[in-house]
Write a structure and sequence with these properties.
Length: 371
């Protein structure tokens, strides 16, 4: 090479540009583990005014490692209200795979022992493990526990960014109104090598990075009964033993008599007396009373002593019964066995289908004539 005035006879300036070829979505959040990322450098330059063919480097490759991340969430954000003595009662959770690989999740239940439950009450008993108890994956994905169908006790091959419903099933035993049993569900990330069989719990790789190998990194947060970055997550749900506190009172008032009509009537033969049956669910109840049925048997008054007769048209033609539901208007009901909720059969007044939330009341009215 010849030199002049200390300068190269190469008149062009060499330009260096880098370009990258990526197999898969490089650096994207949630890139699946085991994805190969391929990188290549390209150098473009000129000699004098002549552009030269670019020079390419070798292809450098690395493999995306496995990020283990998950959450567990109880479903419903409130107690599961159950009856004392209940069996096969269910708590519902969602296991969420927020990592970047398909994984199995091993499941365990931890009974809370005293202290504040997740909804502001106090845990005071452990729901017994009965013959039908256990932890079950919602294998038919209908959101409802189906005994004999939902049998798998782990989450099988849950894909990236997917969720799976899981049930904890327990019996209750003889508990008092307001008792609470809080239970945490913990999901542990595991490999998913074999379908329909639980995998082995994953272990974090704490050593140096190994090029080309898929290594495991825990990225999970702190759950109710587990710590951060432990490959687990937990959340707590609770049973609340609910009881309706039902009281029933019956009163009567003279509605009319043959001489005074409805003005200051007296209970004389021929007078009409209205009965009111009041059904209440106490404000201290922790459960609604459903399918409440009121039955008032008048057999002794009508048949044995013959002292009163049911008045058949008190609230309309063929409507001798009236019901007033909680917060609703008085509704006449027919005496016949038909589609409405009331009837008068075999000397008994019956009204069904009443629901009473805690603190609510309903009334049933009917009238009789003194003989």
């Amino acid at each position: 090479m010849h030199w002049k005035n200390g300068r190269s006879r190469l008149a062009g300036i060499v330009l260096v540009l880098l370009s990258f070829g990526v197999a898969g979505a490089a650096n994207a959040v949630g890139t699946p583990s085991a994805t190969s990322i391929n990188n290549q450098a390209s150098v473009a330059y000129s000699v004098g005014a002549s552009a030269q063919a670019p020079e390419l480097s070798n292809i450098a490759t690395f493999v995306v490692d496995q990020m283990v991340d998950l959450t567990v969430t109880e479903v419903g954000s409130s107690y599961s209200t159950v009856a004392t003595g209940g069996v096969t009662e269910v708590l519902i959770y969602s296991v969420n795979n927020t990592g970047n690989a398909t994984m199995d999740f091993l499941l365990t239940a931890t009974d809370q022992v005293g202290g504040a439950d997740p909804f502001g009450g106090t845990d005071n008993f452990n729901a017994p493990v009965g013959a039908t108890s256990g932890i079950f994956e919602d294998t038919n994905d209908n959101g409802v526990y189906d005994a004999g169908v939902d049998l798998r006790a782990f989450v099988d091959q849950l894909g990236q960014d997917l969720s799976q419903v899981v049930f904890i099933v327990r019996d209750i035993g003889a508990q008092a109104n307001g008792d609470v049993s809080a239970i945490a569900l913990t999901a542990q990330a595991a490999d998913s090598l074999t379908p329909n069989l639980p995998g082995t719990a994953l272990v974090q790789d704490n050593g140096v990075d190994v090029p080309g190998a898929v290594q495991v990194v825990f990225a999970d947060g702190t759950g109710d009964v587990d710590g951060p970055r432990d490959g687990q997550y937990s959340d707590t749900d609770a049973f609340l033993v609910g009881a309706a506190l039902i009281t029933v009172t019956k009163s009567s008032v003279v509605f009319s008599d043959p001489f005074n009509g409805t003005t200051n009537p007296k209970a004389i033969p021929g007078a009409i007396v209205e009965y009111t049956v009041t059904i209440s669910n106490g404000a201290g109840a922790s459960a609604s009373a459903t399918n409440v049925t009121v039955t008032d048997d008048l057999t002794n008054e009508i048949v044995t002593n013959g002292t009163v007769a049911f008045t058949t048209d008190s609230y309309g033609a063929g409507q001798g019964i009236q019901v007033t539901p909680p917060g609703g208007a008085a509704t006449p009901l027919s005496n016949a066995v038909d589609v409405d909720a009331g009837d008068f059969t075999a000397n008994a007044v019956t009204v069904s289908g009443i629901t009473l939330a805690p603190g609510e009341s309903a009334t049933v009215n009917f009238r009789v004539t003194i003989q």
